[in-house]
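User: Watch each token:
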Amino acid sequence: MSAQAPRRQLLLASDDQEQSRELERILQSISDVQTVSTSELPDAPADQISGLVVDINLRSAESVQRVRNKLRHESYRAMPRLFVLADGLHHGSMQAWALGATDTISRPLSAAGIQQRIRAAFPDSHGFDATERGKTLNRGVEAAHEVMVKIFHKLPAGEPLRFSDVVQAENKILKAIKHSSLREWLTTVGCHHADSYRHCLFVTGFAVAFALHLGMREDDQRRLVRAALLHDVGKAFIPTAILDKPGLLTDEEMSEIRRHPMLGYQALASQGGYPPEMLDVVLHHHEFLDGTGYPDCLQAEQISDIVRLTTIVDIYAALIEQRPYRVPFTHAKAFATMEKMEGKLDTHLLHAFRPVTLGAY
């Protein structure tokens, strides 16, 4: 009889271990758990630890600073880091991502939900990829997360998003997807707490895979990564109550959402330093070839190739994502839906994109 595979090893850091008892019990049902206070968090985790769970009061400046200092160590940054939020408020997840989270869960705790999230975010010990490949994937996802934090948290607060920040991230993102796979990228970011973050990271993964499939030169691959990361930058200026609404939007709310391309364009253009083609993607990724898109009702030849490609990836990613008001579309249903958008999308690019999506399943 074969030996039983070792269970995943998790490190749980808490600033109130009594409050974390329920979480600890849930984690123990599917993992071996070592629980420590934030003051006892080691400078570097043991080799067998496959992931970190952080359950702290994000309103405590002392706890936040302790955890921030520890997570700067390279060995933590190379593993998944799940933060537990006191509630589902948008600003709570933003603070967690800024601290170094790669995923978040919210109270009240659901045992089934947490178990599913843990299985997706943390591999079993025998399957934990501590090799350079696994570290490369984690670094790429982390770099993309950092750009999302700067877009959705720092930019609205008046802190500039520098073009150099995006360029620095693109190297790690490209390397991560080239040396792992689209499926691994989507799995890693797929349980992201913030819908806006998750969508941008999905679009980025599909855009890179599409560029590789088309055999684009590396310069063009980089252009596409930048475009995908920044295409929804304008949503940083849309009220979070609309972005996080669990149901369908009203007509008034949809009108507000439709302002995001112009808001993003204005923010980056006024800041300066961004190539015209990136501003083009930010402003026009909701334009359609038949002139029915927004905000400028562009038609056919007025829409650049990079915008056409980003639009296809953007729509496909939105269709296959989990939304509070509907289940995700299957690959077949997503493509059938897009094929019915006759006259709106570039047919040649859409057909070229089909094989790319098969790598996500």
